[in-house]
Amino acid sequence: MVLQAIRYSRGSLQILDQLKLPHEEVYRDIWTVQDAWDAIHSMQVRGAPAIAIVAALSIAACVARCNKSGADPALLGPDMTGAGLISHNLQILLTSRPTAVNLADAVRKLEKVVWQVQQQPGSTDYSINEAYIQAAEQMLVDDIRDNENIGNHGADWILRHTGTVFPAGKLSVLTHCNTGSLATAGYGTALGVIRSLHSRGYVKRAYYTETRPYNQGSRLTGYELMHDNIPSQMITDSMAGALLGLKREAENINCIIVGADRVAANGDTANKIGTYALAILAKWHSVKFIVAAPRTTIDLNTASGQDITIEERRSHEVTTMRGPAVQRSKDGSLIVGGSVHEIAIAADHHGAWNPAFDVTCHALIDAIVTEKGVVEKDENGEFHFEKLFAD
Ligand code: MRU
Fold first, then answer.
1. By the 8 A CB rule, do 270 and 305 touch?
2. Of 261, 268, 358, 366, catalytic
């Protein structure tokens, strides 16, 4: 069964609530644009590509209902119609989370589509809505295809660059956060590369970090790796240095592969908090450090990582944890599955710093894998992305 984070059909959108995974599988209706904003802001849906697609499809579902039965109260901006109404709602959704650029890229492209149709003689609200729906639906289709290409390019590159160092034809990788089917329309970016390596029989073990504070690794990546029967093991974020420092062949990490929320024009990369520390560890241990992301994550208008806005979230996400109650059986083994609780894990519930992302300098990145191919630095240590956008 394919893991489906986004369920869409004309006029209807549902998301798998990622705050409840892996203990509960609950699909939520995204009926209004406000529902979409709330789901993105609260991180019921998260991951740069998934955020953009859910935002785009939430409006598509509303305008499809408009085209069927007149006005739809699920859109915000009741006195507006056509391109203006769609643009107004896109701009509202753009405020839901600031760091991932995929949403801004989708908004720009979708606004262009509707304004172009509006310029055509004889255009109506109906034809504008129809063009919007088709463009938003295409994003869902394109994302899966792009991720499969990222997976294949990334796997080829890793095999070429680590082939001489991994023993017995298998390699171990380390990843961070969740970049799989749950973070995208399907297959995933960094996790897509791991899927591609696994489908070719090359994965000895995929290690994944817990990814504090919201545990996208332990809750979501672990769930996806188990779902696909990929040999895997979780570590806490603070164990990565020790893992890379092991000299035992069994755990030898051949490369670290992560996703991205925004890649600046010079290759500096914003990704889940903790990525930067992993990149420094990779450099110290001479392990390849790879970023996998679609072209929609590359932002040529942002010169460097210093220009990226890093979202800071509320401290309670750091000072609390959610999960089902656990009981111990007589033999000491754990029985998980009681009702879900939120518990406090800190003395001070107000003072924690909670940046959702950090920036990894391009100097620490060996390659950036996109659906169009892999970009490496030139002899001066600089990335060039222009060729990726030539078509
Ligand atoms: O805060 P999140 O869970 O939305 O952060 C997600 C990440 O940092 C991912 O690595 C990134 O969005 C790439 S997902 C393909």
1. yes
2. 261
